[in-house]
Write a structure and sequence with these properties.
The protein is built from 14 helices and 16 strands. It is of the alpha/beta class. Strands 1-2-3-4-5-6-7-8-9-10-11-12-13-14-15-16 form a 16-stranded mixed sheet. Helix 2 runs antiparallel to helix 3 and helix 10 runs parallel beside helix 11. It is globular. The two termini are 31 Å apart.
Length: 498
């Protein structure tokens, strides 16, 4: 029998990756040999989880005390750091009072300082993510900018609780030079956008950018371009822009800043202050610039978008996201026809969702569903909205033999219906009716690859491999690794933590 310490290092790493940190710590205590091989894995990904509730013992406090001890040197193995969670709720009232004076609470400053002291001990740090509901400070970002190997930065710059209880200072990111991936969520200040423009001038290898604005801030994208002065466009592979009130068209062209040649994944979420002509300009500009992504996510249909989609082939992923726009509803049937005609040979992921749970727009009836199933047989993930009187037509999905992920939203035929179970043709719960239709086909061996099924905003079910029944996995839709429709980009940091 081969002992664990006799395994090749790469094989042992695979074994260790399946263990929880607490189990790894026990393995490390077995022998010196195992300790030497386990410790680099144990400290590779460091997670500072803010606990929200004061309790004894406090794991966060214990972590910070241990890691900042001058004699503790195991952070030299750390490659990624994640800070997530919520600050102690007992302090909310005090922090709200401090925030009204546009000040960061001293305790939050101390948290930042202690994390800086930890980062100083991490010469090989490559990835840093701040997804906590408290603000990072400038000193922390400045220290990160001087780490030569840091190539991935993800920061939550505000929250739904801004400015109560926390004040988020306007941060400058212009010192970063080595980034390959920059993800900034809940951006709510124009100076931050301008500092990102300075970053774009300095970085050489940036390939992945996600900028999500805080919708309540009504922030235009325009300030991003004020400081940009490049001789050639950034060769991005992924560009994800969401939440901005306006995009600044026609004065600003995205493709004079971002190269259309290298782009693979494109997300454009037009804002609630965008004018119809501006939205048209975006896609006319993409058509003129010959933008040809393999993955496209959008939140509004326009005639210019349809012309753009018809101009090329090869989309593997198309996602029509929900929205709360006051813009006119686009020509949906023409949109579906164009998608299944131009991209039928390549499409693997298709998500077509109504603007909201009570909207009658963008629903698939029997004819549209038939078109999709017949023309796009390679679909592995499919999401769509359907009216209650069309639930039985969902059986058409059984023609998709490679389908692995399914997400169905049932929209009440009466837009004023208060819940998603109202407005049904026979009074039955729509999720129960959908389950009956799906299980009936699954048990006959149809859709043999189907693994995950979600309804509305939850529940999420998985298909039992033996029973072929639907089992509730979660009452809401969590991030599911290795899926697109349930990928939730903002939560990708969880892959390093859990």
């Amino acid at each position: 029998m081969i002992l664990l310490q006799e395994l090749p290092f790469d094989v042992a790493e695979r074994v260790y990756s399946k263990l929880a940190p607490s189990d790894l710590a026990r393995v490390a205590g077995v022998s010196r040999t195992l300790h030497a091989s386990v410790v680099p894995v144990l400290y590779r990904n460091v997670h500072f989880q803010l606990p929200a509730i004061i309790k004894d013992p406090d794991r966060l406090l214990h972590q910070l005390e241990t890691f900042t001890d001058p004699g503790f040197d195991l952070l030299k193995h750390t490659l990624s750091v994640t800070v997530s969670g919520a600050w102690y709720h007992k302090y909310d009232e005090l922090d709200a009072t401090i925030g009204q004076g546009q000040l960061v609470p001293p305790a939050i400053k101390m948290l930042n300082t202690l994390i800086v002291l930890c980062i100083i001990k991490m010469p090989h740090l490559k990835k840093f993510c701040w997804d906590a509901f408290v603000p990072p400070d400038q000193r922390l970002l400045s220290k990160l900018a001087w780490i030569p190997r840091l190539d991935t930065l993800q920061i939550r710059l505000s929250s739904n609780h801004t400015p109560t209880p926390y004040f988020y200072p306007s941060l400058k990111l212009h010192d970063f030079r080595s980034l390959r991936c920059l993800n900034l969520f809940q951006v709510n200040k124009s100076p931050v956008l301008q500092s990102i423009g300075v970053v774009f001038n300095r970085v050489q290898h940036l390939v992945d950018v996600a900028l999500w604005a805080d919708v309540d801030a009504r922030l235009p994208l325009g300030p991003l371009f004020k400081e940009i002065d490049r001789s050639e466009p950034l060769p991005l592979q992924t560009l994800d822009l969401r939440g901005f009130a306006t995009f600044g068209y026609p004065e600003i062209s995205l493709w004079s800043t971002f190269s259309p040649i290298t782009l693979v994944n494109l997300t454009i979420e037009v804002g609630h202050m965008s004018r119809p002509e501006e939205v048209d300009d975006i896609w006319q500009d993409a058509l003129a610039a010959n933008v040809r992504p393999s993955s496209l996510a959008i939140n509004h249909i326009t005639p210019s978008l349809i012309r753009y989609l018809a101009s090329f082939q090869g989309l593997r992923t198309l996602h029509l996201m929900p929205h709360e726009l006051a813009l006119p509803i686009g020509p949906f049937v023409d949109f579906i026809k164009t998608v299944v005609t131009a991209h039928d040979g390549s499409l693997h992921v298709l998500g077509i969702f109504p603007p909201d749970i009570n909207s009658q727009a963008y629903l698939l009836d029997a004819q549209l569903l038939t078109w999709v199933v017949q023309r796009c047989p390679r679909l592995t993930e499919f999401g769509f909205g359907v009216a209650p009187d069309q639930i039985d037509r969902v059986s058409l999905l059984f023609g998709l033999f490679q389908l692995r992920v399914l997400h169905i939203q049932v929209v009440a035929q009466n837009p004023t219906a208060g819940t998603k179970s109202e407005g049904n043709v026979d009074g039955a719960d729509p999720v129960a009716r959908l389950c009956d239709v799906l299980v009936g086909g699954i048990k006959k061996g149809l859709c043999p690859e189907l693994t995950y099924v979600a309804f509305d905003e939850g529940p999420l079910c998985y298909v039992g491999s033996a029973s072929r029944e639907l089992h509730v996995m979660s009452e809401y839709i969590p991030r599911i690794r290795n899926t697109t429709l349930f990928g939730q980009r903002m939560l990708q940091w969880m892959d390093d933590v859990f």
